[in-house]
Specification:
The chain is an alpha/beta fold. 34% of the residues lie in helices and 26% in strands. The chain is built from 10 helices and 16 strands. The strands form 4 sheets. It has an 8-stranded mixed beta sheet with strand order 1-2-4-3-5-16-6-15, with helices on both faces. The protein has a 4-stranded antiparallel beta sheet with strand order 10-12-8-13, with helices on one face. A two-stranded antiparallel ribbon has the order 7-14.
Length: 386
């Protein structure tokens, strides 16, 4: 069986057997067993269900890390092809099956050819979708147990033509944080609002006040951000002013500095408005994903390799950042890095169905594009002596 056929078969197998974050027992075993078949040194259960495969060639002490994510989503698949999910309510709706298969293919080929000088770390990460897997692997010593000079990751992107590459030397994806502001008042009779304190009015003022943070506390050019209140919950009813209101929502930004400014400014707004109304408040802010920020030198490497592979007309090395998020961002705080996206297919064409949709499927026609990118990247960064 050719490598193309093997990678496709691996992808279909993983797609048929999706597993949620930190439950990737079958997938983890499948990956680890394959890596051992290829002759790699394999470390299982890194960050719970993560796998690290190590391939050394030559005498160089240089190294590179290549990362793929393995987890699926709690989405009911509506596709009816032969490799559709066999686990009802779970599916690979984000293409992690393809990412894993491509990195396995690269490990197979590099183990076969051994045409580089140094060490390659093949990092198969669990739990990406909820921002916990990268942190778990880091906490388990990923960058302490092994000396990884730089780390790279790749993700498919529907809506971009098949096999085209997209990246940026700087922020490429946003930080994602959740917040909760609980307003504690006395409430009272709807006909007698003067006899109590009304958290509805306070909550409405806070909603409006939060919107001023992006326009008045952050640079519209250098610190673009979004603050969205997505829930406004009360314990009141038609003729009862509630005694509590809870606001929940989501924020996105592209730098760590903007993230810290937003967290502080949101509490300042809530505290000030609540104090003026004579009510108490509770504030929670949870950062789920840091901003995905590529380092310029590693991005230049990725763009050079992609250009060599598919041509300059199919590589956008200065793309505008996306407001979606990625937990590879935590690995980026540990080593120089680049996160690059590969087109899964233009809108309305094969591979064009958006991520996280029940009819999504990874485009098999880009599998070898990914395999070849990883191989060329390794040879570029760990060249053999001429």
């Amino acid at each position: 069986m050719s490598i193309e056929e093997q990678v496709k078969a691996w992808r279909h197998h993983i797609h048929k057997h999706p597993e949620f974050g930190f439950e990737e027992e079958q997938t983890s075993k499948f990956v680890a067993d394959k890596l051992e078949e290829f002759g790699l040194e394999v470390h299982r259960n890194v960050g719970k269900t993560g796998v690290v495969g190590i391939l050394k060639c030559g005498d160089s002490d240089r190294s590179i890390g290549l990362r793929a994510d393995m987890d699926a989503l709690k989405v009911l698949e509506l596709n009816d092809f032969a490799h559709a999910s066999t686990h009802k309510g779970l599916m690979h709706a984000c293409g992690h099956d393809g990412h894993t298969a491509m990195l396995l293919g690269a490990a197979h080929e590099l183990a076969r050819t051994k045409d580089f000088d140094g060490t390659v770390y093949f990092i198969f990460q669990p739990g990406e979708e909820h921002g916990v897997g990268a942190k778990a692997m880091i906490e388990d010593g990923l960058f302490v147990r092994w000396n990884i000079d730089a780390v790279y990751a790749m993700h498919n992107l529907p809506g971009v033509p098949e096999g085209h590459f997209v990246t940026n030397p700087g922020p490429i994806m946003a930080a994602e944080s959740a917040f909760e502001i609980e307003i504690l008042a006395t409430g009272g009779h709807a006909a007698l609002p003067h006899m109590g304190t009304d958290p509805i009015v306070v909550g409405a003022q806070i909603v409006l006040g939060l919107q001023n943070i992006t326009s008045r506390n952050l640079s519209s050019i250098h610190e673009p951000a979004v603050i969205s209140v997505t829930e406004f919950n009360t314990n009141g009813t038609t003729n009862v002013i509630p005694s509590s209101v809870t606001l929940k929502g989501d924020t996105r930004c592209f730098t760590d500095d903007a993230l810290h400014k937003i967290e502080a400014a949101m509490e300042r707004v809530a505290a000030g408005i609540c104090a003026s109304a004579g009510v108490e408040y509770r504030y929670k802010f949870h950062n789920g994903f840091l901003s995905t920020i590529n380092t310029p030198s590693e991005t230049a490497v990725a763009v050079r390799v992609a250009t060599k592979l598919v041509g300059a007309d199919k590589v956008d090395g200065a793309a505008k950042p996306f407001t979606i998020s990625e937990d590879f961002s935590f690995m980026q705080r540990q080593a120089p890095s680049c996160y690059i996206l590969v087109g899964n297919g233009a809108e309305g064409e094969k591979g064009g169905t958006a991520l996280h949709k029940p009819y999504y499927d990874f485009n098999d026609d880009i599998l070898m594009t990914g395999v070849n990118f990883w191989q060329e990247l390794v040879k570029d960064q760990l060249p053999q002596a001429s």
